[in-house]
């Protein structure tokens, strides 16, 4: 059976789907500032199917909305369980697909899931991409404003790739700008990249937003970002995305 059909058959029970959690840290203090929930899908016969493969399929064939709902429900359930047992002060980030934002009842669905789970919406952050925002800036801004009014933070993901309109920084209620990992990758070898990253950081700060750099794989990249004034980071150097029990043990439990 083709992957698309397997995906459709899995939607009923969401069997084989689970979330991993990648920590986001404050660059100066090393304190946990957030975690990004990342979906995974493993089939008994095939093994794991990369999200870079099944997410685009799900978007194309109208399956991303139920999958996105499951992600939000599962992430909220986990966050509630953690917030009952551990200190707060950090947010849980969830990736949103443009197709989810385009649903007329998206905000109502978020309200329902947040209420059912009992999480504090102030602990949630939604990551959207530039392409999602640019598709329809006005309606996107309106929806994001509604979410922001509930305390949910918005992060602009993969910033610097695609059509990096600066208009987005001005028009959307963003709390966080995420510098795409391609910039992190080129940072040490390219002074042009360093200038661009430095500019993104200055602009974001001037607008009252915080910056998280993605894809930090080495200590040298981390130091360079620190010198440029970057506040937060995420990447394999600190940790790969972790199953919840490991994330809990390494970042939440204090012993
Ligand atoms: O985790 P990984 O780097 O393999 O993810 C690959 C892509 O899948 C990334 O672009 C990431 O944003 C996306 N992705 C991961 N989890 C989710 C999710 O829950 N929802 C959506 N829409 N995209 C996700
Ligand atoms: O598109 P988005 O930024 O949501 O993608 C996040 C993806 O990046 C996750 O699937 C995660 O597995 C991956 N990722 C996280 N840290 C690193 C890293 O340090 N290097 C690389 N190459 N990928 C990373
Ligand atoms: Na993301
Ligand atoms: Mn990203």
The succession of helices and strands, N to C, reads HEEEHHEHHEHHEHEHHEHEH
Q: Going across the biggest sheet, name each strand in turn.
A: 1-2-4-5-6-7-8-9
**Content-based structural category:** alpha/beta
Level of helix content?
A: 40-55%
Mean pLDDT: 95
Q: Helix count?
A: 12
**DSSP strand count:** 9
Write the layout of secondary structure elements.
Blueprint: H1 3-10, E1 17-26, E2 32-43, E3 47-49, H2 51-60, H3 64-85, E4 91-95, H4 98-101, H5 106-117, E5 124-129, H6 130-135, H7 137-149, E6 153-159, H8 166-171, E7 176-179, H9 181-186, H10 191-206, E8 210-213, H11 219-227, E9 232-233, H12 244-252
Parallel strand pairs: 2-4, 4-5, 5-6, 6-7, 7-8, 8-9
Antiparallel strand pairs: 1-2, 1-9, 2-3
Helix pairs in contact: 3-5
A few lines on this structure:
The chain has 255 residues and is α/β, with parallel strands linked by helices. It has twelve helices and nine strands.
What would you say this structure looks like, in words?
This is PAS domain S-box/diguanylate cyclase (GGDEF) domain-containing protein. Residues 1-255 form the EAL domain. The chain is α/β, with parallel strands linked by helices and 255 residues long. It has a single domain (3-252), classed as TIM Barrel, CATH 3.20.20. It is built from twelve helices and nine strands. It has helices spanning 3-10, 51-60, 64-85, 98-101, 106-117, 130-135, 137-149, 166-171, 181-186, 191-206, 219-227, 244-252; strands at residues 17-26, 32-43, 47-49, 91-95, 124-129, 153-159, 176-179, 210-213, 232-233. An eight-stranded mixed barrel has the order 1-2-4-5-6-7-8-9, surrounded by four helices. The protein is globular.
């Amino acid at each position: 059976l083709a992957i698309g059909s397997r995906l459709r058959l899995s939607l009923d029970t969401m069997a084989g789907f689970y979330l991993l959690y990648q920590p986001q840290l404050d660059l100066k203090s090393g304190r946990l500032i957030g975690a990004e929930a990342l979906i995974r899908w493993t089939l008994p016969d095939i093994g794991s199917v990369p999200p870079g493969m099944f997410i685009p399929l799900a978007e194309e064939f109208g399956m991303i909305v139920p999958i996105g709902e499951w992600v939000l429900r599962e992430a909220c359930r986990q966050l509630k369980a953690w917030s009952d047992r551990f200190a707060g002060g950090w947010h849980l980030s969830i990736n949103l697909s443009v197709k989810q934002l385009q649903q007329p009842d998206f905000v109502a669905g978020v309200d329902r899931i947040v209420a059912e789970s009992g999480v504090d919406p102030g602990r949630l952050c939604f990551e959207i991409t530039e392409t999602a925002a640019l598709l329809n800036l006005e309606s996107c801004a309106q929806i994001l404003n509604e979410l922001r009014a509930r305390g949910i933070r918005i992060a602009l993901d993969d910033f610097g790739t695609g059509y990096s309109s600066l208009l987005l920084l001005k028009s959307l209620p963003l709390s966080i700008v995420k510098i795409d990992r391609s910039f992190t990758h080129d940072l040490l070898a390219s002074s042009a990249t360093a200038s661009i990253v430095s500019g993104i950081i200055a602009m974001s700060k001037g607008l009252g937003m915080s910056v998280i750099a993605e894809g930090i794989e080495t200590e040298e990249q981390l130091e360079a970002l620190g010198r440029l004034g970057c506040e937060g980071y995420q990447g394999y150097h600190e940790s790969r995305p972790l199953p919840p029990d490991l994330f809990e043990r390494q970042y939440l439990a204090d012993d």
